[in-house]
């Protein structure tokens, strides 16, 4: 009898931990979205005005880093579900988790904000 009770207690404890982490993911994680495509020529032009030094090549590098890293721990995030001004802090935090360098984090951030503005502009 004692043995059964202990087994039950252990089982419900791991169920509790599973439930807690499911709630954590549901509570903190924004909507998942499709893998974003490359930035258009218009997007490149706007981005290079917004951030001097940003080019089609740097946006492509940011896109490739995003595709390679940003679905490793969760699905690709929906870029439009996060406000433009919230992305810098999040990409800094996530880039650290993904062990990207500060320069790589900048590439990803500029890609994310450019691709987001293109998605938002679409009807
Ligand atoms: C090593 C694992 C890991 C990698 C790699 C990773 N993430 Fe995350 N991400 C998490 C975890 C865990 C959470 C939920 C907890 C949190 O917000 O820190 C999260 C949450 C998020 C959120 C929600 C944050 C919020 O405050 O709403 C966004 C957006 C996000 N990730 C984007 C990204 C992007 C973009 C990348 C690629 C640079 C990335 N993640 C790479 C683990 C990761």
- Ligands bound, unique: heme C
Q: Assess the beta-strand content as a share of residues.
A: under 5%
Q: What is the string of SSEs from the N terminus onward?
A: HHHHH
The oligomeric state of the chains shown is single chain
Number of domains: 2
* Average pLDDT number: 85
Q: What is the general shape?
A: globular
Structural class: mainly alpha
* Radius of gyration from the alpha-carbon trace, in angstroms: 20 Å
Number of strands: 0
Major sheet summary line: none
Residue share in helices?
55-70%
Number of helices: 5
* Low-pLDDT residue spans: 16-24
Q: Give the N-to-C terminal Cα separation.
A: 64 Å
Index terms:
single chain, 123 residues, mainly alpha, 2 domains, 5 helices, globular, binds heme C
Question: Your description of this structure?
Answer:
The chain has 123 residues and is mainly alpha-helical. The chain has two domains: 1-30; 31-121, no CATH class. Helices cover 67% and strands 0% of the residues. It is built from five helices and no strands. Helix 2 crosses helix 5 (102-121). The longest helix is centred in the first third of the chain and has 27 residues, at 2-28. The termini are far apart. Mean pLDDT is 85; it is low at 16-24. The structure holds heme C (HEC). Heme C binds at residues 28-30, 69-70, 72-74, 77, 82, 90-91, 94-95, 97-98, 108. The site of heme C has 17 residues, from helix 4.
